[in-house]
Amino acid sequence: MAIYPYQTNPLTDFSNEDAVKKYQRALEDIRALAGKTYPLIIGGTAIMTEKTMTSVNPANKKEVIGVLSQASIKEADLALEKALETFETWKKTPASVRADVLFKAANIIKRRRFFFNALMTKEAGKPWIEADADTAEAIDFLEYYGRQMLELERIDDKVLSRPDLERNSYTYIPLGVGVIIPPWNFPLAILTGMTSAAVVTGNTVLLKPASTTQVIAYHFVKVMEEAGLPAGVINFVPGKGSEIGEYIINHPKIRFVSFTGSKDVGVHIYERAAIVQKGQIWLKRVIAEMGGKDAIIVDDDADLDLAAESIVKSAFGFSGQKCSACSRAIIHERVYDTIVKKVKGLTEMLKVGNPEDQQTFVGPLNDHGAFKKVTEYIAIGHTEGTLVTGGTFDDSTGYFVKPTVFKDLSHTSRLMQEEIFGPVLALSKVSSFEEALVVANNTEYGLTGAVISNNRMHLEMARADFHVGNLYLNRKCTGALVGYQPFGGFNLSGTDSKAGGPDYLVLHMQGKSVTEQL
Questions:
Q1: Which of the residues 113, 175, 403, 475 could staple to 423 if both were Cys, CB 3.0 to 4.6 A apart?
Q2: What Cα–Cα distance (Å) separates residue 418 from each residue in 299, 323, 362, 470, 510?
Q3: CA atoms of 92 and 390, how far apart (whole Å)
Q4: In the annotation, is 81 catalytic?
């Protein structure tokens, strides 16, 4: 089959009245599904369980999005059995067939783009632009990984042979059965990327979605089924992390764990996976992305309007609930007061409210736990710095926190060191660019960062010494594009797995070298 060059899927133009109407109709369609029950899917069979979980709209806690069956260890064992059984045939399925499933799934999501957009607005609290970008990224992952798999299969001269002596080959083979544990904050894009990478490389998986976005995950699985994915390749097993999540990760038949989420959970998974269980005959592989404490440095000769805009968009897009969000700005003292003023003005212009309103920029936090954590950090901010704007919150209807900015933070303060995962921004002053780099690197994380500067030598200094997996020069620190900016971080931000990059699929495979004497 002819494969066209990869390019990202364009974002929706919401100045187009037809696009606005389609989104509004899709929101009505999602409302009509309120309260629907959803099963597990194991080996292609829908299984209802007595134990259920109710998914609610974080902007309106009284609105039920769906009621989902929850797996116990019994269902986890059944899913593992089906995945092991299916692996024996799926691993031998040609790469072209596996890739074709991804291409078909991409086209299905393209046709249902507004459905998935609206579902993310309702279940994940994503504003229109954020939800649309999430759907576009999911399509990009499918298109990119499909092409990457075909390219890996096509190259047959990875190693040299010796004429008249031996013929050598080097091929990639799948690992086995893995568990996919995606996050709630990119409930379609990251889930799609993690899962599609695992299955296009010939593995079978148990998919345990984030607890608050299980309806989105269910509809993704149905898309993959419709695209022709055989039963048992993806087994949908939502359930409690401390119960089935722990059980699956520890199981000796699990070959790899793909995880995106918090540092604490990621570190725990890494530790548990390192233990060789009784009956286990391999070392489990962990692919992990775990968050960050991302900084934007503003130099003394920077474009100050660009700097303020980059900070605000990075800090408060999707209410700061991105691992790449700017949670601290490190600003040269010569421009500090001006940047503080500009950031305050831009922040106070942001519309906070229900993301069903097209004009909303800052929607709700994910759930009560997120709301509690963020508001506790706001209290800490009052003791560590000076409030610039925001600081108010309300969970009477949904989990809403106004974009909050604190200034004059110590470089070692908690607001400058700890991941908050919400709309709280810390501003700190430095006296030189060299000091700014020291401060930027002084956390346990290393995911994203940005530098706003017109000084070429300072940009090159950052290129060499700003220790993050994704560094952006003169732009915001969020919004990595699949295939263009491979995404993954250093230190305790994860295993630097670089999702959406040329090396990602290989992490789900192992190399096999064969020599035949002539």
A1: 403
A2: 24, 12, 22, 19, 36
A3: 56
A4: no
Rg for the chain (alpha carbons), in Å? 23
Phi, psi of 63 (to 5 degrees): -90, 120
Report d(CA 166, CA 319) in Å as an integer.
Answer: 60
User: Alpha-carbon distance 5 to 326, whole Å?
Assistant: 33
pLDDT digits (tens, 9 = 90+) for 329-368: 999 999 999 999 999 999 999 999 999 999 999 999 999 9
Take residue 52 and report the two structure tokens written for it: 């259920």
Rounded Cα gap, residues 243 and 249, in angstroms:
10
How many DSSP H helices and E strands does the chain contain? Answer: 15, 21
**Domains in the chain and their CATH numbers?**
21-290+497-517 (3.40.605.10), 294-480 (3.40.309.10)
- The model's pTM is 0.96
Tokens of 31: 């409302």
Q: Given the structure tokens 């004429």, which residue do they identify?
A: 163
Contact indicator for 444, 468 with CB cutoff of 8 Å:
no
| Spatial strand order in the sheet of 60-69 | 37-38, 60-69, 52-57
466, 437 in Cβ contact below 8 A?
yes
In this prediction, residue 2 carries a pLDDT of 59
Phi and psi angles of residue 123, each rounded to the nearest 5 degrees, phi first? -90, -30
**Residue 4 pLDDT:** 75
Residue 139 has phi, psi (to 5 degrees) of -60, -45
**Active site annotation includes 151:** no
The torsion angle over the Cα atoms of residues 157, 158, 159 and 162, rounded to 10 degrees, is 0
Instruction: State pLDDT tens for residues 159-213.
Output: 888 888 998 889 999 999 999 999 999 999 999 999 999 999 999 999 999 999 9
Cβ neighbour number for residue 351 with a 10 Å cutoff: 12
Residue by residue, DSSP assigns 364-375 as: --SSHHHHHHHH
In degrees, to the nearest 5, what angle opens at C-alpha 252 toward C-alphas 251 and 256?
Answer: 80
Give CA separation, 393 vs 109, 479, 480, in Å: 35, 27, 30
Annotated catalytic residue, options 75, 123, 225, 289: 289
State the catalytic residue, choosing from 137, 143, 323, 477.
323
CA nearest to 319, candidates 399, 227, 397, 395: 399
Q: What is the pLDDT of residues 400-433, one digit of tens each?
A: 999 999 999 999 999 999 999 999 999 999 999 9
Q: Which residues pair with 166 in a beta bridge?
A: 162, 517
